[in-house]
Amino acid sequence: MQVAVFILVVLGFVAISGALVRLVRVPLPVLQIAIGAALAWPARGFHVEIDPELFLLIFIPPLLFSDAATAPKRELLALRGPILDLAIGLVFFTIVGFGYALHWLVPSIPLVVAFALAAVLSPTDAVAVSSIVDRNVVPARLMHILEGESLLNDASGLVMFRFAVAAAMTGSFSLGAASLGFLYAVVAGIVAGVVALIVAAKTLQLLNRIGGVPAEAQVLVMILIPFIAYLGAEHAGASGILAAVTAGVLTSGSGIFRYLGVSARMQTMSLWTTLSFVFNGALFILLGLQLPDIIRKVPPELSSRHWLIEPVATVLILTLCLIGLRFLWIWVGDIAQRLAARFGKRKAEPFGLRVRLAGSVAGVRGAITLAGILSLPLTMPDGSPFPARDIVIFLAAGVIICSLTIASLALPKIARGLVEPGEDPGAAEERRARVGAANAAIARIEIIANDASEGEAADARLAVADSIVAGYRRRIAASDEADEARAEAREAGRLELELRFAAIEAERTAVRAMLRSGDINDHTAQALFAEITLTEALLKGRKERK
């Protein structure tokens, strides 16, 4: 019962945080972490012991799968060079640079354990990045690079974390074995993601052949894809995170949605949106729940002189070190890109100083780091305590909070003015696509109407075709590049939506009256309410796009 109450409380505060974020004007992850810390801080507050493996399995695969499925594949492919450079090259650079800096700053941490902390701190958090970074103030190219990096560096960082922990446990390290192990983890992880997607597609095909299968069964197959990919890869000793990301990246282009019915497609999209919001919020609240206990156990090595000042200063220095290493790597990458473009006689697209700084500050750490560091073993093979375990857990939690705070406060100021005013390229592309689709629809409807035979049925078909074509022409006018034409079309569209919403509200009121009077039963009312709600959702979507 206590577990059930705890889950309900967390879900309740996830919902509350969605409303509070509008009032307090802070990034949602920061607010949710604060809520979690407030719940756990009192002596009798909520507390939960996180099982890192269970934590990774429940939260990380679905969240990364969802982010990967909605990521812009064209842009990620076009920017694969800088993305891989950050997702792999920067990870190794951070492990070496941060590891030595940490060992120098806190000598009580063995070098190999410092490398382990550096490895688990190297991945950026896809969830936190998308929550903090405002797409309207950050250049689209930088945003796509950050998204792609955060999807891929989880795998590289955690694989190297495992090698560092193994080296700390055994006292030996082989570069050749580590390189082969890393390559295997990457390749096998990708294969596991592809296999999971194939298995899901075959299952949906089988359900279609059976016929009459509820849409909910098809939705369940889609929900299970990231978990199947993750567990399959982990069972094979590969990267489960990379498997979930691979499955998500390939989902939209694999054609798997053609095996879903219309109802199943709508339910899948709606359910994934809800799950992403719930899991994101619960994840950061759980992170906040860990903070008071971690802070109460400040290691004596970090508080020998001042209980508060010394550990806070250490965390701040390490966070700035991570930002500095990231800035240096991006800067060197810019120089290398210019040289490569000069020798290849290509046009270079280097980042300016402020964009490099924005990209460095936006590399926040989050759930992957916390789950990874909490998975450190308690004891060594000989039964002695794992060296500096409490210190690195404290430092990891501190860096997570500090990186989130710095990004939340500094990024809006750094990024201000980086995006030139004017129409968003994505919006312009969407407008052109709408015009093209509408023209194709008009052409098809006119062909069907003109092929109709003469008579009363033909007249009715032409009248219906004219009505449908008129709607498409209004859509084209609303996307017209001429400001005056677009303004007129939008005003007409606004009046149409106003009337349609009024009609929908009248329908809903009439159905309620019939239900109360007993003219219809609950099943009939639910069916009508579902149709009305769907129509209303479509109209609201049109209104938001306008």
UniProtKB/TrEMBL annotation:
Mode of membrane association: Multi-pass membrane protein
PANTHER family linked to this entry: SODIUM/HYDROGEN EXCHANGER, SODIUM_HYDROGEN EXCHANGER 7
Originating organism: Mesorhizobium waimense
Record-linked Pfam families: Na_H_Exchanger (PF00999)
UniProt family annotation: Belongs to the monovalent cation:proton antiporter 1 (CPA1) transporter (TC 2.A.36) family.
InterPro entries noted in UniProt: Cation/H_exchanger_CPA1 (IPR018422), Cation/H_exchanger_CPA1_bac (IPR004705), Cation/H_exchanger_TM (IPR006153)
Transmembrane feature ranges: 83-106, 112-134, 181-201, 213-233, 239-260, 272-291, 311-332, 353-379, 391-411
Location in or out of the cell: Cell inner membrane; Cell membrane
Keywords noted in UniProt: Antiport, Cell inner membrane, Cell membrane, Ion transport, Membrane, Sodium, Sodium transport, Transmembrane, Transmembrane helix, Transport
The keyword Cell membrane appears for this protein: yes
Protein name per the record: Na+/H+ antiporter
Highest taxon above the source species: Bacteria
A GO molecular-function descriptor: potassium:proton antiporter activity
Keyword Secreted: no
Domain Cation/H+ exchanger transmembrane, residue spans: 14-414
Cellular component terms (Gene Ontology): plasma membrane
